[in-house]
Design a protein that fits this description.
The complex is a heterodimer of chains A (about 140) and B (about 80). With about 140 residues, chain A is an alpha+beta fold. Chain A contains four helices and eight strands. A four-stranded mixed beta sheet of chain A has the order 1-4-6-2, with helices on both faces. In chain A, strands 5-3-7-8 form a four-stranded antiparallel beta sheet, with no helix packed on it. In chain A, α2 packs antiparallel against α3 and α3 crosses α4. Chain A is globular. Chain B is of the alpha+beta class. Chain B is built from three helices and five strands; from the N terminus they run βαβααβββ. Chain B has a five-stranded mixed beta sheet. The longest helix of chain B is centred in the middle third of the chain and has 9 residues. Classes of the chains: A alpha+beta (about 140), B alpha+beta (about 80). At the A-B interface, β3, α2, α3, β7 and β8 of A face loops of B.
Chain lengths: ~140, ~80
């Protein structure tokens, strides 16, 4: 299990390979969020952000078989095409890996304290993100 | 009863402060009551924390409902809805 909030970039390939070393792992599903069109600054709540991510991962583990997982979220200045977030989940089978990965991402978007600021101002929360998280209830 | 209050993102900018420690007046015992007390400072506080504004709160680094009870030494945070990912 690896949870990291960091300003520097990550190597998604290395993170995914690290999740498939256990012979029980039959599937690794991953999601990478990328900065689209305009640069931004990401702010977080040191301490709470990591704790919120740990809780989300624990919730996923209580619903699906999660053999291992990696959640990395960048903060600070990011420019278009930069990677922002990685969620990768290892499970025995693809169904559990896909579901847990999507669940973690949906909850991260609505529960983890991160805020995006673009040149035009602070990004507003989207109702569609709340709806995406609601469907797991 | 003293508590630490943190402000993030647009709220931090509007209020012009990232954090403060205050002595809670008698009767201010919940997250909602604290928000209302801070709003009473007027000006930017009144505007940023107005009833219609979507403001989320955390108590000791866990998301907290307005009814959450406060105790001495708590860390309370106010911030806009999150937009990570």
């Amino acid at each position: 299990m690896r949870i990291a909030v960091q300003p520097h970039d990550f190597d998604a390939g290395a993170e995914i390979r690290a999740l498939s070393r256990d012979p029980k792992v039959g599937a690794v599903a991953s999601f990478i969020g990328v900065v689209r069109e305009v640069g931004m600054t990401l702010e977080h709540y040191p301490g709470m952000t990591e704790k919120a991510l740990e809780k989300i991962v624990a919730q996923a583990g209580s619903r699906w078989q999660v053999l291992d997982c990696s959640v990395i979220h960048r903060v600070g200045e990011l420019k278009p095409t930069d990677q922002i977030v990685l969620v990768a989940v290892a499970s025995a089978h693809r169904g559990e890996a896909f579901a847990a990965c999507e669940f973690i991402m949906d909850y991260l978007k609505t529960q983890a304290p991160f805020w995006k600021k673009e040149a035009a101002g602070w990004v507003e929360a989207r109702a569609a993100d709340d709806q995406a998280a609601e469907r797991w209830k | 009863m003293r508590v630490k209050i943190l402000y993030f993102a647009s709220l931090r900018e509007q209020l012009g402060t990232p954090a403060e420690e205050i002595e809670l007046p008698a009767g201010v015992a919940t997250v909602a009551a604290l928000r209302s007390h801070l709003r009473g400072r007027g000006g930017a506080w009144e505007r940023a924390l107005a009833d219609g504004k979507l403001v989320r709160a955390a108590l000791n680094q866990d998301m907290a409902p307005p009814t959450a009870a406060l105790k001495a030494g708590d860390e309370v945070a106010f911030f806009p809805p999150v937009t990570g990912g």
